[in-house]
Design brief:
By secondary structure, the protein is an alpha/beta fold. The chain has two domains: 10-149 and 334-351; 165-330, 3-Layer(aba) Sandwich (Rossmann fold), CATH 3.40.50. It is built from twelve helices and 13 strands. It has helices at 22-38, 50-55, 90-98, 117-120, 177-186, 199-208, 229-238, 248-255, 272-283, 287-296, 304-330, 335-351, and strands at 10-15, 41-46, 63-66, 79-83, 104-108, 124-127, 130-135, 165-169, 191-195, 214-216, 219-223, 241-245, 260-263. The strands form two sheets. It has a seven-stranded mixed beta sheet with strand order 3-2-1-4-5-7-6, covered by helices on one side. A six-stranded mixed beta sheet has the order 10-11-9-8-12-13, with helices on both faces. A hairpin with a 2-residue loop joins β6 and β7. α1 crosses α12 (335-351) and α10 (287-296) crosses α11. The chain is elongated and about 70 Å long.
């Protein structure tokens, strides 16, 4: 039997940025955690490194490399992570095949709460003379779990529901947003909405016809700069309610143990609503919350003032449920640690 190497494994993560932030955010958190907590030698190959300057300015724990069209010849790593089926460069596939021992090759899949995920997690697929494994994040036993760092602080006590409601807004283009902003403006309860940079701010300023900050009726709108990931996590913990999108902010809102509203990445023929309903079936049986999530994702076109009023009344109950939900999803272990165990087991088996 061969002895296991003492040198930490090398790992290449490939990321093609689709929506500017989400894919880069997930890949950066994973790369950092593998390097800092597990001692892996990590290179992050990314076609658009610009978001990392905002997420983690000045970082020196991961080697970030731009993934250009003409991919240079490099030695393939011990572990190769293809994020979200981004398709590896042909030159790198050749380098993988040229290794004396094939690398452990993973496709890190998108997060879903659908029932079939556990059955597909970890399955192999022969490709290019190699074997690729599908690694699924998830909420249930039998999946890869969710990204959460060892040094992630426990959520501070939830802010009390006083007169003023603090909300953070991070969303894709959403046709429902103008009607919701109008409901907040015309409502009885003061609201301070912290608007994230990029798409949310452009949408809000278009509705206003003016730049932020601004006040309309009961609604105060504040502009946020581009936040580092720790600063964004702190924002989520500070607010009574967080509007999040995609995958990275979606997961962080759950660790924050606060009520949230998720906008799934829009897909043709409303395929994203299947993912939404699968998550809601696990997350809550609160009828007002389920109805609001679905309307925010375009499934329904409600009377937004009445719809918001019903959902706002449910916020204290959702806040009370949030810590228990965080404990439930944490019980599967964190994704990075589960991924490390999976890969080291494959390396060990290959060396027998």
């Amino acid at each position: 039997m061969s002895r296991m190497p003492t040198e930490p494994p090398s790992c290449d993560i490939f990321c093609a940025v689709i929506d500017n932030l989400g894919d880069a955010g997930v890949c950066w958190r994973l790369a950092r955690q593998l390097a800092v907590e597990h001692g892996w030698r990590v290179r992050l190959w990314i076609d658009d490194p610009a978001p990392l300057d905002g997420f983690a300015p000045g970082q020196d724990v991961v080697a970030v490399r731009q993934w250009a069209g003409d991919f240079a010849h490099v030695e393939a790593a011990d572990i190769v992570i293809e994020a979200f089926a981004c398709n590896l460069p042909a030159a790198y596939l050749a380098a993988m095949a040229a290794r004396p021992r094939p690398p452990v090759w993973l496709n890190l899949e998108y997060l879903s709460a659908e029932d079939w995920v556990a059955g597909c997690h970890g399955l192999p697929s022969p490709q290019h003379g190699l074997r690729k494994y599908f690694f699924f994040p998830g909420f249930a036993a039998g999946t890869g779990g969710l990204l959460r760092e060892r040094d992630f602080s426990a959520a501070p006590p939830a802010p009390s529901f006083g007169d003023t409601l603090e909300i953070s807004l991070f969303c894709y283009d959403n046709p429902a947003l103008p009607a919701l902003l109008a409901a907040w403006r015309d409502g009885e309860r003061p609201i301070v909405c912290h608007v994230c940079d990029g798409l949310p701010r452009r949408q809000v300023e278009q509705w206003l016809g003016a730049s932020l900050p601004a006040t309309r009726g009961k609604l105060r709108l504040e502009a946020l700069p581009f936040l580092t990931q720790p600063d964004y996590d702190a924002l989520l913990a500070r607010c009574h309610l967080n509007f999040v999108r995609g995958e990275d902010s979606f997961v962080r809102a759950q660790w924050a143990e606060r009520p949230f509203v998720w906008q799934a990445y829009p897909q043709p023929e409303d395929a994203h609503l299947v993912k939404l309903d699968a998550f809601l079936a696990r997350y809550t049986d609160n009828a007002a919350a389920r109805a609001f999530f679905r309307a925010w994702n375009g499934a329904d076109s409600p009377d937004w003032p009445a719809h918001w009023s019903s959902f706002a009344a449910a916020l204290p109950a959702l806040a009370a449920q949030a810590p228990g939900w965080a404990r439930e999803i944490a019980a599967q272990g964190d994704l990075a640690t589960n991924l490390v165990k999976f890969c080291l087991a494959k390396i060990g088996a290959a060396r027998l």
